[in-house]
Every structure is written in C-alpha cells, then in structure tokens.
Amino acid sequence: MRCIAAGKGEIDSMYKIRNALARFMYGRNGVDQLNVALLWGYLLLWIPQMILAMTVGSVILDLLLDLVRLAMVIALFFRIFSRNLDRRRAENQWFVNGWWRMRSRFHGARERYADKAHKYFTCKNCKTICRVPVGKGKIIITCPKCGAQIQAKT
Ligand SMILES: [Zn+2]
C-alpha cells in the first residue's frame, strides 16, 4: 500500500513556492479584466485561424494571425508583471468602459428590434434615441433633450 497524500516535505515546498510567488507578484498588476480578455482573444482567435488555414490557405494571413496572437501573449505577460499600476489600471478601465458601452448598445438594439409597438428615431443633433408609437402617420418629433425637430413616418 502506498500513501497517496502529500508528505510534510511536499506541503512545505508547495507553501514555499506559493510564498515566493506572492512575494514576486507584490506591487505588480496581475490578472485584470483586460488580461482575461487578452487570454480569451489569444485562445479564440485560434479557431478562425484554423478555419482560414483550411479554407483560404494563405501563408501570409496565417503568419499575420500568428503575429497578432503573439502580440496578445506579449501584452498579456507584460501587463501581468508590470509595476506601472496607474497606467495598467487606466488601460483596464478604458477596456471595461468600452466593453460595457458595446454591451448596452447591443442590448438596446435588441430591445428596440423586439418592440413592435414603437418606432425609434435618433436625433441628428444630439444622438438621443426618441421613441414614437407606431401608426401615427407622418409626424414631426421634437427631441426631448435638445428641442431639434425630426420628421418621421410611423
Ligand atoms: Zn436632440
């Protein structure tokens, strides 16, 4: 019979490694949302790359995608071990903001598409989205935000 559980020596060295790693990572950026996205980008880009290699078969395109993925990995490791926390936080915030804007735009567009009782118009002046009930014929909408008038057919 062999003992499967780790011996005291192994636990000790595991603890030492974890301790050393924690010391090494102290004051460094580590894994933030942008780094997670870079990792996913690196992994997921591999799928279209494989498909393109099988269909188009362009050596240059393949090399280009290799370079993009390599750049992602370099950026990932650079950002994990970076000590310039202000810059890294600003980058991450920029990424998270952009991501949320994209998400809410997508959700908004889906909701407007599903809403068959209203028509939506974007004000040319201030980009506010105005909602009007369907079936009113030709109308003039006054933007609630800036007062500009939009001619619309519902
Ligand atoms: Zn407006």
SSE layout and pairing:
Layout: H1 8-25, H2 33-44, H3 46-55, H4 59-81, H5 85-114, E1 118-122, E2 129-133, E3 138-142, E4 149-153
Helix pairs in contact: 2-4, 3-4
Gist?
The chain has 154 residues and is α+β, with helices and mostly antiparallel strands. The protein folds into two domains: 86 residues, no CATH class; 39 residues, no CATH class. The protein has five helices and four strands; from the N terminus they run αααααββββ.
Helix content: 55-70%
Number of domains: 2
Bound molecules: zinc ion
In what order do the strands lie side by side in the largest sheet? 1-2
Counting helices, strands and paired strands, the structural category is alpha+beta
Shape: elongated
Q: Please tally the β strands and state the result.
A: 4
Strand content: 5-15%
Major beta-sheet overview: 2 strands, antiparallel
| N-C termini distance | 81 Å
Overall pLDDT level: 91
Rg measurement, Å: 26 Å
- Unreliable sequence segments: none
Order of helices and strands: HHHHHEEEE
Number of H- or I-type helical stretches: 5
Describe this structure in words.
There is one protein chain. This protein has 154 residues and is an alpha+beta fold. The chain has helices at 8-25, 33-44, 46-55, 59-81, 85-114; strands at residues 118-122, 129-133, 138-142, 149-153. Strand 3 (138-142) and strand 4 (149-153) form a beta hairpin. Helix 2 (33-44) runs antiparallel to helix 4 and helix 3 runs antiparallel to helix 4 (59-81). It is elongated, with a radius of gyration of 26 Å. It starts with 7 loop residues before the first helix and ends with a strand. Zinc ion (ZN) binds next to loops.
